[in-house]
Amino acid sequence: MFRVIPFFAVVVLSLVGACAAAEPTADEQCAELTASIRSCYPELPADAACTPEIIDRYQAEDFDAMSCESIDAAGKADVFSFGGCGVNEHQCGFLFCCDHGINWEPTGDADWQIIDIVDAFQDDLPLDIAAEFDGLTRDDVLDVYSVTYEQSVDDGLHGGPHLLAVEHTQGIVAVSLEDFLARVPADRWGVELDHYLGGEVQVHETDAEGRVVRQVERMVLSPLPIDIHTPANADMTKVEHIVYGDDAVTVYWRVMYSDNLSTETDVGSVSFIRHGVDETLVVFHSAHKLSALGVPLANSLARASLGPFFSDHVRHYRGLVE
Q1: How many CB atoms lie under 10 A from the CB of residue 54?
Q2: C-beta separation of 175 from 188 below 8 A
Q3: Candidates 3.30.530.20, 1.20.210.10, 3.10.20.30, 1.25.40.10; correct CATH number of 109-321?
Q4: Best label site of 33, 51, 112, 226, fewest CB within 10 Å?
């Protein structure tokens, strides 16, 4: 789960005594800061060193007047200048640390049986949406073309079909499929998404060529156009099954767990498809039921965000490879 730990307690404990004796007021401030944070995190050591920057940040936030819940929320909302925790990494921001490790494990082969589930709702495309995509020209997808709609979808986890928000997004990237996959391998599709703040990937199966076939991935994405940590991050742990072909590679996914309850349902795929000689068509097609701080969002609100964000993902891929 997302663990908020005061930066000074994790990173600078080895520097005890760094609060200069020549500045007793800084020592006193450091002791006060430590005591205040320890009241919310009693497992932390009682003594710690504080840089002037840490003291300034503490005073600016007025933590003394904040409840433990507010302090925890402030940590989760910390703006990390490095862009978040990298994949499989634990990193610290200015005052707080974040860690996005996987806290769920598959219990059997049934957890991986997702291809038929995804194919079922994608093949049942509403007639008007199917006609819209059938009529697309190359010019329509030179940038990104995205539509959202509602559809009854059974993700295999929630006792039957439910009305979900669905996005269908396509865009051309002006490099060959081989060049695209050399820069964005299919097993790194999630790590290379736009608005990525951190996560972890665990490989569970590879094929005879050493390519990843099954993996579990926790990804944390910013719900905002600016990439900052908030308690409402889109936090998803997925099973992913990758199917390789000569002219296309498809990653199927299904969310199995959400550490912050932001995602009730998320099932779909992304395909990287050979498009002519020197182009790759990226196609996202997925169904969602989203929440914010544990409160379910109306599909209309989810749809308003899905189109722009999946369009951002296609453009971000394009920026990585072109």
Answers
A1: 22
A2: no
A3: 3.30.530.20
A4: 226
DSSP string, 71-140: HHHHHHT---TT-SPPBT-EEE-SSEEEE--------SGGGG--HHHHHHHHHT--HHHHHHHHT--GGG
Structure tokens given for 93 = 């921001």
Provide the β-strand partners of residue 173: 280
Residue 202 pairs in a beta bridge with 216
- 276 φψ region: left (φ > 0), alpha (ψ -120 to 50), beta (else): left
Please tell me the distance from the alpha carbon of residue 123 to that of residue 301, in angstroms, as a whole number: 25
Residues forming CATH 3.30.530.20 domain(s) in the chain = 109-321
Q: 18, 81, 85: which is closest to 34 by C-alpha? A: 18
Give the type of residue at 305.
Answer: S
Q: CA 207, 175, 119, 106 torsion: positive or negative?
A: positive
Question: Could you list the pLDDT tens digit for every one of the 322 residues in the chain?
Answer: 334 433 333 333 333 334 444 455 777 877 777 777 667 766 555 555 565 656 666 666 666 677 776 665 555 444 333 344 556 655 444 344 456 789 999 999 999 999 999 999 999 999 999 999 999 999 999 999 999 999 999 999 999 999 999 999 999 999 999 999 999 999 999 999 998 888 889 999 999 999 999 999 999 898 765 555 555 688 999 999 999 999 999 999 999 999 888 999 999 999 999 999 999 999 999 999 998 767 888 999 999 999 999 999 999 999 999 9
